[in-house]
From TrEMBL:
Residue ranges annotated for the Autotransporter domain, each copy included: 84-365
Endpoints of the signal sequence: 1-29
PROSITE patterns: AUTOTRANSPORTER
UniProtKB keywords: Signal
Name of the protein this chain belongs to: Autotransporter domain-containing protein
InterPro entries per the UniProt record, alphabetical: Autotransporte_beta, Autotransporte_beta_dom_sf
Species this protein is from: Mesorhizobium abyssinicae
SUPFAM superfamilies cross-referenced by the UniProt entry: Autotransporter
Length: 365
């Protein structure tokens, strides 16, 4: 079990309380040396925000991928409401709220090692994507499927860090715009999907005891999945899916209102994902089709790196690499062209717990 790597910053005025904040030593972080070692609060606050906006943006990307697969690979096997929509274009829109409780990162540098304080994260994301069913448009969708699409959206993550040592804590908020594209190929009930995303934004850091600052951020992600749908009965199907994920993120350097120099921050990792799910279809008396489902997401990160620096001293943040998420929700096909979806999700790792809710809508035209 690893512990994530993130940044911590406490301004020069906290050096008075340095000795009280001393913790046993090890590797690399936002740890300063002034009459003893101490954790830089502002650095830590900014570091938690970096990890939070990456998680929020990846959550939005996962939602987009799930919507595509559910709509284009696993259509309801119950008879849909008439008339059947044959248009090649579709629009997906979804919004998600999430809340995370995190025990804190372990931060380390050449001076010392600290177990950072608890923090919580409030997340929001909204995205809209335009889907083009090329196979349907060009008339080869009997056996093969080909969908391509573009999406854009917004993500925000607000982090609140608890008081620790002589620091009263603080908060940071990142607001980012997202955009990207995807391609889905289907042959029978087997499929492969690739999606890429960029999220560009800005983080505001507020340290209760000292100065404030802000810095620009940019991140990029690519995910690839392969899967197969198995029809267990005439109404129940099983989606066996797995894939890979890659992420890189950079925060620009900045100087805060007290003149402290914070260098660039970097976060990157890869991950292996296994995402099985089961779906059922039921036609209602009013002609609508409801498809409840349950899914799991087992994710193992590799090559995790999360670094930052204060006054030229580089830092490392550690976090748990393995996580499990459980999803439950439904898709309600109201007409041949309109589908409403709702979902709740829980995610757990050795260091954090997340609960989330999602609402989505698809319209074909």
């Amino acid at each position: 079990m690893k512990a994530e790597k993130r940044l911590l910053r406490v301004i020069g005025i906290l050096s008075i309380g340095a000795a009280a904040m001393f913790v046993p030593s090890e590797a690399t972080a936002c740890i300063l040396d002034s009459e003893g070692t101490f954790l830089d609060a502002s650095c830590y606050i900014g570091g938690t925000a970096n990890g939070a906006i990456v998680d929020t943006s990846l959550g939005a990307l996962d939602d987009i991928v799930d919507d595509i697969v559910e709509a284009d690979v696993g259509p309801a096997t119950a008879a849909p409401p008439a008339p059947v929509q044959t248009a090649p274009f579709g629009v997906f829109a979804s919004g998600q709220f999430a809340h995370t409780e995190h025990d804190g990162f372990r931060i380390s540098n050449s001076l010392d090692t600290f177990d950072g304080p608890h923090f919580d994260v409030d997340e929001f994301s909204a995205a809209i994507s335009v889907d083009f069913n090329a196979a349907k448009h060009f008339g080869f969708d009997n056996e093969h499927g080909l969908n391509i699409g573009l999406f854009g959206g917004y993500a925000s993550a607000r982090v609140g860090v608890d008081a620790f040592g002589f620091s009263s804590g603080g908060d940071a908020t990142n607001r980012s715009g997202m955009f990207g594209g995807y391609g889905l190929y289907r042959h029978g009930t087997s499929y492969a999907l690739v999606a890429v995303s960029a999220f560009l934004g800005n983080t505001d850091v507020e340290n209760v005891d000292s100065g404030s600052g802000n810095y620009d951020t940019q991140g990029y992600a690519i995910t690839g999945s392969v899967g197969r749908i198995f029809n267990l009965t005439d109404r129940v199907r099983f989606d066996l899916r797995g894939g890979l994920l890659g992420v890189t993120f950079t925060g620009d350097g900045y100087e805060d209102s007290f003149g402290t120099d914070y260098g660039k921050s970097h976060l990157s990792f890869g991950a292996v994902k296994f995402e099985p799910g089961i779906y059922a279809d039921f036609q209602l008396g009013n002609g609508m089709v409801i498809s409840p489902y349950a899914r799991a997401d087992f994710q193992q990160r590799f090559g995790y790196s999360n670094t930052a620096s204060v006054e030229g001293e580089e830092s490392e943040f550690e976090d748990a690499d393995f996580s499990v998420a459980l999803y439950s929700g439904f898709n309600l096909k109201m007409t041949g062209s309109t589908t409403l979806s709702s979902e709740i999700r829980g995610k757990w790792s050795a260091d954090s717990t997340t609960v989330a809710g999602k609402l989505g809508l698809k319209i074909a035209f």
